[in-house]
Amino acid sequence: MKRQKIAVIGAGARGFLSYMPYVLQHPNEAEIVAVAEPDARRRADFAQTFRLNENQVYLSWEQLLEQPKFCDALLICTQDRMHFEPTMQALRKGYHVLLEKPMSADPLECSLITKEASKRGLLLSICHVSRYTPFWQRMKSLIADGRIGDVVSIQHNENVGYLHYAHSFVRGNWRNSDQSSPMILAKSCHDMDLIRWLVDSECARISSFGSLSHFRLENAPTGSTERCTDGCAVESSCPYSALRFYLQDIKDNPFAKLIADPPSTDNRMNAITSGPYGKCVYRTDNNVVDHQIVNMEFENGATVMFSMCGFTRDINRIVQIMGTKGEIRGDLVKGEIDLFEFSGGIRSVIQTKVGDGGHQGGDDEIMRQFLSDLRDRRFESNLTSADSALESHFMAFAAEQSRLRGGEVVDMKAFRSTSKTASPSLGRQ
């Protein structure tokens, strides 16, 4: 088996912790030959893990891409608004690319990236990792096999989890759309992608409602302070206490290890007292919605209602798919699919494997598939190709436009046409 030579741009939570375990477990499939990472500690840890010398380590993506082409593909895992430039430069140099989602926070840039890859005949795969999980794969196969007939309607709930929401979207890197991207894109482009994939039709019309209703200064409890460590009178009873949340054992709390590197107790305490993760959740510069619904009508007549909410007990996706011959109900965390077929009144409860690793095994599977596609030179019509991702990205952009305009119905045909030549202003949340 020919080993693919890969360079990584962005050695953070996704580029290093999520995707590199597969490479370490399957050294016969890939060789990591370079990294670009501005954080000195992450850069050093990555270089040590893959035994890179100083000539294989770069402080920025610009430095790496200044070099003549030296490997097969790049894995680009920078922040949302830092995807376009390195991806375009990589494609122009002839690199195949595995790009973290979202493709870009700008619909025109998404279109330009897709066109560039197609023009050059290069593999550009987007990290819509959910498509690779056993749960969603089985869901798709049941529909494709006609077990519930034609899809008529879908109700899809994304339960973000109250602590996950507070960590990532109130205090964390995705709290402000001006710095990252709107919630429907940053978090829920997975869901837009899954919906588009399951319905298997172009979206015709879309509308959306939602807001940032709770995590605002006017809702701060009496006696609260700028930081959880400033003598807050309600810290001990606040469900979002940074002290209680981030000082847990990192084995029990995966978010705790992300606020400091290395995540020692002292380093985490320092991050709480001086960084964004110790801010009162009612006093940050956050502006992304904490709840949103999206209504969709597809060209084949199917309708979909999607709901995202940050006020849920667990992190999960719950789905109900109603067809002309049956119904499917699914619980992602349980890996359980409840199939009911109208003919004969037959009910089947299907237990899918809950995969190891991130996103129920999806992180490992997308790496396996990307490396396989490179080896076998399958550069077009891949499961998570840029072409397939572009449509679901447009759905997310259109939903945000609708929300910002009071829920007006967006005609997707007109939106696609406009977005391929100019970027509609989505404004603040």
Helix content, binned percent: 25-40%
Give the rounded overall mean pLDDT: 95
Q: Proportion of β residues?
A: 15-25%
List the quaternary state of the chains: single chain
Structural class comes to alpha/beta
pLDDT below 50 for ≥5 consecutive residues: which ranges? none
Corresponding CATH superfamily of the largest domain: Dihydrodipicolinate Reductase, domain 2
* Broad shape: globular
Q: How would you characterize the largest beta sheet?
A: 9 strands, mixed
Q: Number of helical segments? A: 15
Number of strand segments = 15
Domain module tally = 3
Radius of gyration: 22 Å
- N-to-C CA distance: 49 Å
Strand order of the largest sheet: 14-13-12-11-7-10-9-8-15
Give the H and E element order: EHHEHEHEHEHEHEHHHEHHEEEEEEHHEH
CATH topology of the largest domain: Dihydrodipicolinate Reductase, domain 2
Question: At CATH's second level, what is the architecture of the largest domain?
Answer: 2-Layer Sandwich
- Broad CATH class of the largest domain: Alpha Beta
Family: Belongs to the Gfo/Idh/MocA family.
Pfam families: GFO_IDH_MocA, GFO_IDH_MocA_C
GO molecular function, one term: nucleotide binding
Protein name: Oxidoreductase family protein
Descriptive report:
With 429 residues, this protein is an alpha/beta fold. The chain folds into 3 domains: 4-130, Rossmann fold (3-Layer(aba) Sandwich); 131-215 and 287-419, Dihydrodipicolinate Reductase, domain 2 (2-Layer Sandwich); 217-278, no CATH class. Helices cover 34% and strands 20% of the residues. The protein has 15 helices and 15 strands. The strands form 2 sheets. A 9-stranded mixed sheet has the order 14-13-12-11-7-10-9-8-15. A 6-stranded parallel sheet has the order 3-2-1-4-5-6, sandwiched between helices. Helix 5 packs parallel to helix 6 (107-120) and helix 6 (107-120) runs antiparallel to helix 14. The mean pLDDT is 95. GO terms for molecular function: nucleotide binding. Belongs to the Gfo/Idh/MocA family. This is Oxidoreductase family protein. InterPro entries: Gfo/Idh/MocA-like_OxRdtase_C, Gfo/Idh/MocA-like_OxRdtase_N, Gfo/Idh/MocA_Oxidoreductases, NAD(P)-bd_dom_sf. Residues 5-126 form the Gfo/Idh/MocA-like oxidoreductase N-terminal domain.
